[in-house]
Design goal:
The protein is of the alpha/beta class. It has helices at residues 14-23, 62-76, 89-101, 116-119, 123-138, 147-156, 200-213, 228-237, 274-281, 312-324, 326-346, 350-360, and strands spanning 2-3, 29-33, 43-46, 49-53, 81-84, 104-109, 141-144, 163-165, 186-191, 217-222, 244-248, 262-265, 286-289, 305-307. The protein has a six-stranded parallel beta sheet with strand order 11-10-9-12-13-14, sandwiched between helices. The longest helix has 21 residues, at 326-346.
C-alpha cells in the first residue's frame, strides 16, 4: 500500500490503528508512507503489518524514492497487489511499481475528481485529472468512497475497471458530545482544513445574512490551513472580527460539537464528507453544500439543509430557519442521526471489506 498520510508514523494515531485493522485480514500488509525526514525505514507495527517510510531529503525526491523503495519491497516480498491512496501522483507511482514486478493495481479514490469544481481555476488539479486518466486505464480494480464518485467516474471513463463503494467508517460511532459553553449565543461550527476548495469565505457571507435575523450569531472555525489569514482579513472587511473565532487545530475536535448549534459545511467538492457523518452522530443540525454523501446518506430537506455550491442565499436560509425554529433544530438532527447509524452499520466490518476488495483484483 502506498500512502501519503504521515500520521501513520505516529503510534496510536487513527490512521495507524486503521492500517492495523486492515492487516488482520491479509497474510501480510506492507505500507510505504511517502514523506520527508521522519519515520523508520522498516517497522512491524502489528503481526504481519509492516510500515516503511521514504524519509526523502526533500519533497521533490519523494516520487523517485517511493518508486525505488516500493519496487524493492514488492520484489522482495513477492507482492501480488499494489494499492494506492489516490489515482494521481501516488497512483502513477503505484502503476509503475505494479508494472515492474508484474503485480495487479488497485486504485483508491477518496475525493470527487469529476466535480467541475475540482479543476475550476486549479491548474494543478487539471494536470491531476490527466494523470488520473492514465492511471485508471492501468487499474485492475478501483475503490471509491461514495456512489457520487462512482457515478462520476463511470460517466467519464466508461471502460473503467470494476468499482466498489467503500467509505472509511473506521472510528465512526454515535457520540454524546460533552456540552459546554458556546462561544456565541448561536454558534455556527465550521470544521476542516482552511483551504481554497472548502470555500470558507462563503461561510462568512452566510454569517452576514444570519446576523440580520439574529445579531448574536457567530462562527467558530476548527482547523487550520493556508487560507487562515485571508479568512481573518475577509471577516474583518465584513466587520465581523468579533463574530468569528479561529480555534486552530484541535486534538479533540468532537468536543466542539457540544458547543455549537449548527454545522455549516461550504466545501466545493467532497468524495465522502466524513465531518457530516460525525456531526450527524453527535445530533448536531447540518447545513451543507450538495457534496459527498449528501443525497446518498442524508435526505435533502429532511435530514439536513443542502444547497448548491456558493449559494449564499440558500445556505443562509437554512441557518436562519434553524435559528428561528426550535422544532427543526430538534427533529432534523434526530433524523440525520438515524440515517448515519444505518449507513455505518452497512460497513461495520469495513477493514475486512477493504481487504476483500484489494484481494479480489488478484483473482
Amino acid at each position: 500500500m502506498l500512502s501519503t498520510d504521515k500520521n501513520a508514523l505516529n503510534a496510536g494515531s487513527e490512521v495507524r490503528l486503521r492500517f492495523i485493522e486492515y492487516g488482520k485480514h491479509f497474510d501480510a500488509l506492507h505500507i510505504l508512507v511517502l514523506n520527508t525526514g521522519e519515520g523508520d525505514s522498516k517497522e512491524e507495527i502489528a503481526k504481519g503489518v509492516w510500515l516503511y517510510s521514504t524519509r526523502s531529503l526533500m519533497k521533490a525526491l519523494i516520487p523517485l524514492d517511493a518508486l525505488k523503495i516500493g519496487t524493492r519491497i514488492a520484489k522482495s516480498e513477492d507482492i501480488a497487489v499494489v494499492t494506492t491512496q489516490d489515482p494521481f501522483e501516488v497512483g502513477e507511482i503505484g502503476a509503475r511499481i505494479a508494472s515492474k514486478v508484474g503485480a495487479k493495481l488497485h486504485v483508491q479514490v477518496h475525493t470527487d475528481p469529476t466535480s467541475p469544481w475540482f479543476t475550476k481555476g486549479n491548474t494543478k488539479n487539471i494536470a491531476r485529472v490527466a494523470l488520473m486518466s492514465r492511471v485508471l486505464k492501468k487499474a485492475d480494480g478501483v475503490r471509491v468512497v461514495s456512489e457520487r464518485v462512482k457515478k462520476g467516474l463511470k460517466l467519464k471513463f466508461p471502460d473503467i475497471a470494476p468499482m466498489s463503494v467503500l467509505p472509511i467508517v473506521h472510528g465512526l460511532s454515535a457520540i454524546q458530545p460533552e456540552e459546554g459553553k458556546s462561544r456565541f449565543p448561536f454558534t455556527i461550527l465550521c470544521m476542516g482544513r482552511l483551504e481554497k476548495e472548502k470555500h470558507w469565505h462563503v461561510a462568512v457571507d452566510v454569517l452576514v445574512e444570519a446576523q440580520k435575523s439574529f445579531p448574536g450569531a457567530g462562527i467558530v472555525f476548527v482547523g487550520d490551513g493556508s487560507e487562515r489569514r485571508k479568512l481573518e482579513s475577509y471577516a474583518k472587511s465584513k466587520e465581523l472580527k468579533d463574530s468569528v473565532y479561529f480555534a486552530g487545530w484541535s486534538m479533540k475536535p468532537h468536543e466542539w460539537f457540544g458547543k455549537a448549534h449548527v454545522l455549516l459545511h461550504t466545501g466545493a467538492y467532497e468524495g465522502y464528507g466524513r465531518v457530516l457523518l460525525e456531526a450527524a452522530l453527535a445530533k448536531l443540525p447540518i447545513v451543507s453544500t450538495d457534496v459527498g454523501v449528501v443525497g446518498e446518506v442524508f435526505r435533502l430537506g429532511q435530514d439536513i439543509f443542502a444547497c448548491p455550491v456558493d449559494d449564499v442565499l440558500c445556505l443562509s436560509t437554512g441557518v436562519r430557519k434553524l435559528i428561528n425554529d426550535t422544532y427543526l433544530r430538534e427533529t432534523m438532527p434526530r433524523q440525520a442521526y438515524d440515517q448515519a447509524l444505518a449507513h455505518i452499520a452497512k460497513y461495520q466490518n469495513s477493514a475486512e471489506l477493504f481487504a476483500r476488495d484489494v484481494i479480489r483484483v488478484d483473482k
